[in-house]
Amino acid sequence: MQSQATRTPAQRRTLSILVLLASSIASPLHAPAWPAERSETATLSGQELLKIGEIHDVQQHWQETLTYYRLALSTFRAQQQPQGIATSLVKIAAVNERQGKIRDAYDLLREAVPLYGRTKDRAGQARALLALGRMSARLGYGEEARSSLLQAQDLYRRIKQPAGRNETLIHLGLLDIGEGSMERGLVLLQQAQQDARSRKDIDQQLATWLALGDAHALGDRPQEAVAAYDAGLALAEAEHRVALEAKLQFRLAAAAAADDRLEDGIRSGKRALLLSQTLHDVEAEAAAWSLLHDFYRRADRPEAEEAEQRALTLYRNRSFSVHGGR
User: Of 11, 136, 189, 278, which has the maximum CB count within 10 A?
Assistant: First the structure.
């Protein structure tokens, strides 16, 4: 595999874009309304507080989501309910992950996993272990990531949840690739692809096409990467999976950038931009504008300045929404 030092500037920029997108979040541009005062929620149960938080979660109102999840956590702690505490911790960790607070998410999951061991909720424990494995990998804790993922895989096998077991296989493959074991990682991803196809699980098929494309891109195999992205895109379009189509179009645009295929990149970038706007995914929209700015600049087109300004505006608004609060 080609080392980082020998990659061209275009290849290094493409990998940086892929990493940025992988860690992106979708944040509302508007400031949401404040949640109810504590006195109004004091009579609600922990489960009711979680349900209210989930409603805000779907709407991407992160501030209110966290407020209700934390109120639920306090309620469950006061009642010494390990199941409720663990569930609340996992939900708060998921929001932190979307906001890029990986270390915070990791710490919460480390607390949640042993709590599940005091309950009969093996599915919840498996989900927490899977999430902990992903966060550990992102923090560079390779051994802990592998241990958590293997434990999650074993639990999913025991409770007969093949989709969960296969998801751990995808992340184990990505972990191998991230640690330099490209061929072993590709074998695991191909196994996950076959399993998802046999179960006719469209979402996991798309996830594996995306992962395979990223693996080939990181391994400096541009043709194989584009082939995987194209295969995933055809499936996403046929099955109307707009979110995955947006990610795949962006990946194809980034791949075109590395090969100086400007017109192909602009076409895919525009499609990724339109889909991100449809999904109200602000971070993905900003990344698409940024990529289009680079294409327009390299093609000496007048749209470059507008694309740059739109990207900057979205990034600034996103930063205020996530970090500024009210």
Answer: 189
pTM for this predicted structure: 0.77
Between CA 212 and CA 197 the distance in angstroms is 15
Distance of CA 273 to the CA centre of its chain: 18
Q: How many other CB atoms are there within 10 angstroms of residue 175's CB atom?
A: 20
Residue spans of alpha helices (H) in 179-281: 182-198, 202-218, 222-239, 242-258, 262-278
| Two structure tokens written together for 163 | 């989709």
CA R_g for the chain: 21
Alpha-carbon span 239 to 63, nearest angstrom: 33
pLDDT digits (tens, 9 = 90+) for 152-175: 999 999 999 999 999 999 999 999
Amino acid at 227: A
Cα dihedral: 143, 141, 214, 294 (round 10): -170
